[in-house]
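Summary of Year 1 activities. Much of the first year was spent building the evaluation harness for sequence design. The harness presents a backbone, in tokenized form, and records the residue chosen at every position. We chose the following record to illustrate the format because it has been used consistently in internal testing since the harness was completed.
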């Protein structure tokens, strides 16, 4: 569930545009006003504000934000204002440009998005970069990562709830054979992970845990080149999940760490960047 709070009476897009324009003018930028407006609007509302701003001032709101803001705060606001598909395309492109095996943003996008969402990401990538996401992934990665990522970003999975438990048991065995093989052959692992529905994969992973005594997630981290987290993970997770399932993420984080996500964000960030992230996850700061 979303953690974005929208005013009961929302200003019109033109009124929001005028307020944003005022925030940009004068002595210094009024960052708090920008947070107050954009941090409390849905994706659909932000899209219309962006259109309205251009109509009123013949200026791209995103470019103005880039010129007015800086550092992590600028990047977070920039990504937030983008349409979700365009945002994922930008994140994917950035990950490809500075590719390393610890950058898991491409894995997150290709695995967490629905088939329909991933298709719109590929279309947005075409429009913005005049290339296909698949060809850029293939050109900038290698080895097992290339095989896995190309398969994932190209996939169009079945989204239904049906599960074949016999298949789940069989493919749990195949996954174990692939992971424990000394031949470094991940073809079966890649085939299963990139083609099966999420419901089917969950059943397979549960079978794996029942048979082999540990969850496959830990094993996969080692099997696929010992992945880590990249430095932009906090911004990426907050701006991409705030309108989707941030409440569930907050609950899971608190259960796992015995600390609130708000506390973690407040401890590791500062200034306008901190205020913006806390606004998106549902805790406003004056």
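For this record, the design step produced the sequence shown next.
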């Amino acid at each position: 569930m979303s953690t974005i709070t929208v005013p009961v009476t929302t200003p019109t897009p033109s009124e929001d545009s005028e307020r944003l324009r005022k925030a940009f003018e004068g002595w210094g930028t009024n960052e708090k006003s920008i947070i107050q407006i954009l941090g409390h609007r849905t994706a659909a509302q932000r899209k219309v504000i962006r259109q309205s701003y251009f109509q009123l001032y013949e200026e791209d709101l995103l470019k103005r934000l880039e010129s007015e803001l800086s550092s992590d705060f600028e990047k977070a606001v920039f990504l937030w204002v983008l349409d979700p598909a365009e945002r994922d395309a930008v994140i994917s492109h950035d990950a490809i440009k500075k590719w390393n095996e610890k950058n898991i943003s491409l894995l997150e996008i290709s695995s967490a998005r629905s088939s329909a969402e991933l298709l719109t990401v590929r279309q947005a990538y075409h429009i913005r970069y005049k290339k296909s996401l698949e060809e850029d992934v293939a050109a900038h990665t290698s080895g097992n990562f290339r095989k896995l990522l190309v398969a994932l970003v190209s996939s169009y999975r079945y989204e239904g709830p049906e599960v074949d438990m016999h298949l789940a048991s069989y493919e749990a065995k195949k996954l174990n054979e692939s992971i424990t093989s000394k031949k470094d052959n991940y073809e079966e692992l890649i085939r299963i992970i990139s083609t099966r529905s999420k419901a089917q994969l969950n059943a397979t992973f549960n079978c794996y845990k029942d048979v082999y005594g540990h969850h496959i997630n830990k094993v996969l981290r080692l099997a696929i080149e010992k992945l880590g987290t990249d430095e932009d993970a906090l911004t990426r997770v907050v701006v991409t999940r705030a309108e989707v399932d941030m409440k569930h993420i907050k609950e899971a984080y608190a259960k796992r760490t015995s600390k609130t996500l708000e506390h973690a964000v407040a401890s590791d960030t500062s200034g306008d960047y901190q205020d913006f992230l806390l606004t998106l996850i549902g805790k406003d700061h004056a």
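The CA atoms of residues 4 and 280 lie 6 Å apart. Quantitative recovery figures across the full test set are reported in Table 2.
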